[in-house]
Design brief:
2 domains, 14 helices, globular, 12% strand, alpha/beta, two-stranded antiparallel sheet, Rossmann fold, Dehydroquinate synthase-like, alpha domain, binds nicotinamide-adenine-dinucleotide
Length: 354
C-alpha cells in the first residue's frame, strides 16, 4: 500500500465544554491575566448576553450588541471606539458566527484577547479565518492573531437556538467535516475529528426537531460543531465552500441555509473523484450513500431544500457559475462550468441530487 504523506499544525486554543460552563467565564478572564471585559452579544439574544454579564460582574466594563452578518467594517469601527474608550483588554463574545467575526476583527486590529461562547454551530470560534465586508465586498484573511484564545462551549446556551436554525447551522458544520475528508491537506488527525463530527452532527440533526430542549441532543450538535470547526480551521476547503461564499457574498443568500441546500449536490458532484471520503461520510452517518443520505437528512428535518426557496433568481445562476469557476482552487473533481451550472440548477429547483 502507498505510504501517506502529510503535514499538520495544531491550532493553539483552549476549550471548556459542558453544561453550565458559562459560569466559568470570569475565571477564564483571570487565567488570561486580563481584568477589563468588552462584552459582545447580538441584539436578538440579549438575555444570553445578560446572563454572561451577570457572571462577569465588575469585570465587564463595556458592552456592544450590534454585530452583523459578514462583519461590516463600519460596525467594527463603532465597536473599536467602545474598546478604546473603556480600555478593555479582552473581548467576550456570546453569539453565532457574526458575533465571533466582530471579536476577531477587534483582535486582529488591536491584539486584544478573545473568549467566545458560541450559540450556533458555525465553528468560526476555532478558526484563524476572518471574512470582512468593505463597501459590500467580502474579503477573507487567515492569521493566527484572528484565532480566539479560549472557547467556552455551554450546551445550556445553545439550547435556545430555534430548531430551523439548529438544523441549518448543524448542516453548515457538517459541510466543514465533509470537505475536510477530501482536502489536499487531509491527515489522520483531521480525518478522525471529521468522522466523529459527522456522527454526532448527523445524530443531533435527526433528533433536534423532535427533542429541541434535550441536552444530549444539543451536546451532540455542539461537540460536532467544535470538531467540524477545527477541521475548517486546519485544512483547506473545496467546491462547497466556494459555492456558498459566492451565493452568500454576491447574491445575499443566508449563510447556514445556503450550506444546507448545496451540500448534498456537492457530495454527488465530487463522489466519483473522492470515493474513500464519501464512504467515510456514509459510514459516519450510518447511511448507504453520502449524497442521498445528506439529502434525506435535510428534507426529513424540515430544512430548506432549494435555492429558489431562499430567494435566488433563476436568471442569476449563470453569473453564479461564472464566479465559481473564475479562479482555480483545489477540489477532488475538476471544476467544469457546465457541470457546476447543472449542480446549481438542481439545487435551485430542489431536486434530489443525481
Ligand atoms: P449568525 O451569527 O449571523 O446568527 C444568525 C442569527 O441567529 C442572528 O440573528 C443571531 O442573533 C441569532 N442567534 C444566534 N444564536 C442564537 C440562539 N442561541 N438563539 C436564538 N437566536 C440566535 O449566524 P451563523 O450562521 O452562526 O454565522 C454566520 C456568519 O459567520 C457568516 O458571516 C459566516 O461567513 C461566518 N462564519 C465564519 C467562519 C470563519 O471561520 N471565519 C466560519 C463559519 C461562519
Amino acid at each position: 500500500a502507498a505510504v501517506p504523506s502529510f503535514e499538520f499544525t495544531a491550532l493553539p486554543y483552549r476549550v471548556l465544554f459542558g453544561v453550565g460552563t458559562a459560569a466559568r467565564v470570569a475565571g477564564e478572564v483571570g487565567r488570561l491575566g486580563r481584568s477589563r471585559v468588552l462584552l459582545l452579544a447580538s441584539g436578538e439574544i440579549a438575555e444570553l448576553g445578560d446572563r454572561v454579564a451577570a457572571e462577569l460582574g465588575p469585570l465587564c466594563v463595556g458592552r456592544f450588541d450590534g454585530a452583523a452578518m459578514h462583519t461590516p467594517v463600519d460596525v467594527t469601527e463603532k465597536a473599536m471606539a467602545i474598546l478604546e474608550e473603556t480600555r478593555a483588554d479582552v473581548v467576550v463574545a456570546v453569539g453565532g458566527g457574526s458575533t465571533t467575526g466582530l471579536a476577531k476583527a477587534l483582535a486582529v486590529r488591536t491584539g486584544v484577547d478573545q473568549i467566545i461562547l458560541p450559540t450556533t454551530y458555525a465553528g468560526s470560534e476555532v478558526t484563524p479565518v476572518l471574512g470582512e465586508t468593505v463597501d459590500g465586498r467580502k474579503q477573507t484573511r487567515s492569521d493566527l492573531a484572528v484565532l480566539p484564545e479560549t472557547v467556552i462551549y455551554d450546551v445550556e446556551l445553545s439550547r435556545r437556538l430555534p430548531v430551523p436554525m439548529a438544523v441549518t447551522s448543524g448542516v453548515n458544520a457538517l459541510a466543514h467535516a465533509v470537505e475536510a475528508l477530501y482536502s489536499p491537506q487531509a491527515n489522520p488527525v483531521v480525518d478522525g475529528w471529521a468522522t466523529d463530527a459527522i456522527t454526532h452532527l448527523g445524530r443531533g440533526i435527526r433528533r433536534v426537531p423532535g427533542a429541541p430542549a434535550d441536552l444530549g441532543v444539543r451536546a451532540d450538535l455542539l461537540r460536532g460543531a467544535w470538531l467540524a470547526g477545527t477541521c475548517l480551521g486546519s485544512v483547506g476547503m473545496g467546491l462547497h465552500h466556494k459555492l456558498c461564499h459566492v451565493l452568500g457574498g454576491s447574491f445575499g443568500l443566508p449563510h447556514a441555509a445556503t450550506h444546507t441546500v448545496v451540500l448534498a449536490h456537492v457530495i454527488a458532484y465530487n463522489a466519483p473523484a473522492a470515493a474513500a471520503a464519501m464512504d467515510a461520510v456514509a459510514a459516519a452517518l450510518g447511511v448507504p450513500d453520502a449524497a442521498t443520505g445528506v439529502f434525506a437528512l435535510v428534507v426529513d428535518s424540515g430544512a430548506p431544500r432549494s435555492l429558489r426557496g431562499l430567494g435566488m433568481r433563476e436568471a442569476d445562476l449563470d453569473e453564479a457559475a461564472d464566479l465559481v469557476v473564475a479562479t482555480p482552487y483545489p477540489n477532488p473533481r475538476p471544476i467544469d462550468r457546465p457541470a457546476v451550472l447543472g449542480l446549481l440548477r438542481a439545487a435551485w429547483a430542489g431536486e434530489e441530487p443525481a
